[in-house]
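$ ./design --mode recover --in tokens.txt
reading tokens...
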């Protein structure tokens, strides 16, 4: 597991933000086509197929590719629709997660313990 400093995580945001925006866009597209894809899968033994099938598969591929790129950087993607990510970080000898999502600005401002998740977010200004 890669561990980040706050500065390292902040430096990555400029490269990660466009990836998260693309993931969110592709994910929204796959969700709109989800019922059609299920119906096509049920008909697959009879030849199947669906209108926009190529776009659906292409979007799934792009989501997987971009998610893999984030994972290889050491970033944990938590929510496709929100663009919510975590960066593992060492704080007082304990691994915590620096937390950021699309729309939150240019810098990481939140962290949480692994067990508490998003609901337990704390400001970096207080208690870090």
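writing sequence...
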């Amino acid at each position: 597991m890669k561990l980040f400093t706050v500065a390292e995580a902040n430096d990555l945001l400029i490269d990660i933000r466009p990836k998260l925006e693309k993931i969110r866009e592709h994910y929204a597209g796959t969700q709109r086509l989800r019922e059609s894809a299920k119906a096509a899968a049920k008909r697959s033994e009879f030849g199947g197929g669906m209108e926009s099938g190529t776009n659906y598969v292409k979007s799934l591929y792009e989501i997987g590719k971009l998610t893999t790129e984030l994972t290889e950087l050491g970033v944990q993607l938590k929510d496709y629709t929100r663009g919510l990510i975590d960066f593992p970080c060492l704080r007082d000898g304990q691994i915590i997660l620096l937390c950021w999502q699309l729309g939150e600005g240019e810098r990481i401002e939140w962290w949480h313990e692994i067990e508490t998740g998003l609901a337990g977010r704390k400001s970096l200004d207080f208690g870090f």
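exit 0
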